Amino acid sequence: MRAVTFTEYGGPEVLSVAEAEEPHAGPGQVRIAVRAAGVNPIDWKARSGVMREVMPLEFPMIDGREAAGVVDEVGDGVDGVSAGDEVFGFSVGGAAAEYAVLGDFAGKPAALSWEEAAGLPVAVETSVRVFNLLGGLGAGQTIVINGAAGGVGTAAVQLARARGARVIATASERNHEFLRSLGAEPTTYGEGMVERIRALAPDGVDLAFDTAGKGAIPDLIELTGDPASVATIADFSAAELGAKITSGAEGRAPGALEEAAARIEQGEFSLPVAEAFPFDRAGDAHRASEGGHVRGKLVLVP
Length: 302
What we know:
The protein is globular, with a radius of gyration of 19 Å.
């Protein structure tokens, strides 16, 4: 089968479309004919080697961690899913290929395009996992989401609002109207962020979620008054300040994909696709992700 692969750490240029061995569904898994695969910061961080100490790779590697497609194999112990069903979820062994095995998946809402569905798993599961790590999020609470216009941030804003929380979202000014449309109160990040957020929430904020990893942890701790009320997915030095870090290695949040699908069906959630790239432009997709400032998700299509 054709797949986006790489055989060494390096820049986006190490990605290429090559032949790879077809995977097959094991117990508890399904195999899909891939219609689209999501692109996430974790993909280029893994490819570049910056995470090799905590997440070493075995080459050759197939790129990607999330995909959407049509089931064509069902493993032992899987109930309620048949060949021909449309699903989205987390891949086992790579997503950017003609076929991918999913180990955690849910039915694709009929209203979603393949590209939209492929961009859901990482963003929604990460958001729910962070909320759980922070002890839960609900009505009456105020949360700051730092770097809120990207894929994870966009999902977190909507899921937090659906839980009844007030959301203060940081992003560049060009994304403020977009964040207002999601129900957040936007402000800019960087110098003076503490003062700007205090002006919006003079009674303080309860929790903070950092998706950007650009040195905001001290400010977020100052705003919440408690390092344990701050979580990050992008700043691995945050533990030195007492903040919480999650990479997903500790396990995924149960029910996150089903929650997203249900909220989509109810018209309470959407995740825009910023751009779709063909497999042979996977390097360009990684460059766009690495450059930041992407509103919504990037995806690859066979």
